[in-house]
Amino acid sequence: MPKVKSKGQIKQQSQEPVEVKLSIKEQLAQKREKAKARKKFIQYTSAVIAGSALLGAAIAFALEPIMGVAAALGITCLAMCFKYPRPALYAFIIYVPFGGTVTYALGGNSLLQLAKDAFFIPASIGVFLFCTKYKQRLILPQATRVPFIILMTWMTAVLIFVNGSQQLSADGEQPILLGILGFKAVMGYFFLITCIYYLIRNKSDLYSLLRLQCILVLVCCSLGFIQYMMLKNGTCPPTQGTGDELFKASLESRCFVGGSLLYSPQFGVKRLPGTFVAPWQWGWFLISSAFFSFGTAFNDSNFLWRIVGIGSLASVFVMSFLSGQRIALALVPVVVILLLFLTGQLKFSNLKRFLPIAIGLGLVLVFLAARNPEIVTGSIENLQGRWQASPPHKMILHQLEWASNNQKGIFGRGVGRATNAARIFGKTQLVETYHSKVLYEIGHVGLLLLLGLFTVITITTFKNYRSVKDPNLRGYGASMWVFIAFISYFPYYYPLDVDPVNVYYWLAVGIVAKLPDIDRQERFEKSTEDTLNLKLTKKELKLLKQMENAAKF
Q: Among residues 452, 480, 477, 448, which one has the least CA distance to residue 465?
């Protein structure tokens, strides 16, 4: 971000415009700085690679070659991400939708599902050190500080008193480690808000991040479409077995990308995982992507990128039908309609932008439906059958009642006791709705504290995006806010517990938290008025100073 000019500089410039040119001495100084930075990068990278290779060779000699290679790569990744947190955060965001494909392409070890944290954890440590050095705010938005600390205190108490007491009488289990993973599942990516806040330095960074999301959606949906065609054409065999095996997703049926897959065309049943570990994660990726794609389709400042946004939104609709994901098929159209109303796109003033998008998207969907009527009717009938067999509202009420009746004291059953990813450290209970899962683990008080934090986040992000004057930024903020409010209180299944929603939720909060600062920054930089008309308050001057420090990240 360019350094904000003082009032005197603005006044002088308005009276006598001058073209600023760097002297030869200043140009040479810039070249020396760049050369010095390159030299430091090469030295650091060489040292990291050499050290990782030596340690990896030792591990390979003592244990197994593959363990040595994994250790060398892991240490290199951790060291580079710690030193260069900005590229690490981008790598983290890119890796999230491909994590399932990478995991099973490399053998399916459950620890590989945590590989994305090799990007996030060292990068977040780098952000923490940056905030400490430049005295920047660490917990964002600022209004979440108190409810977050209270919730963390409660969960820590549960970890100590419940998981700790279980550890004393554990038989082959590790309740403390189970609790740590459960802790991570609930609040592990909260600090991503701060990381994204400082990752986005200006409007250009914001657009780059949101455009990257659209590209990832297009790539993942394209890979998912190839997966579907390979199954349909027989390149990949359908699900094998007898009885119930023909109706359950399995790794034996894995095809091209992703993990567990179900494809039994003789019974009209398919559950494709796309690039993710399991089919239902792919469904929630499609639902989440509808929000990001919608934002770009309607609010990007560049016409060509709005076309890309329309393409990514169309691909989400197509894969919602082809993948056999009932929840995506039900929610993606609802999400788009909800966004049209809540973001103000149906206003008369926006019709010139809305109608081309609606017509283009409608033609694509009508064409695909006409070419594949059996897929559309089969998907809708499947959704209706599932709804009738297990009505969602009854399932939600049953889960809440069950979790409430299975309490042991006010602290719940222990952090992680309903976290499926933590089952390697002890016995866990499958709870299929998120709020019931939290209730089971940390009790009624813990659930209320979590809902309190979500409520503060929802209210704060609403105020943030409503304060933005730029129409494009405001539109993006509205899309992200609807996503935040939707996920915060959505009672069906547990999307906040696993990829990708457990990342995208905090990513959206970080984006909206930054929007007011970007909006102010844009208005300050465009202003060429004199000191009397500029009227910068002490609060605004303090904000400008914070923005200058944030730009150093």
A: 477
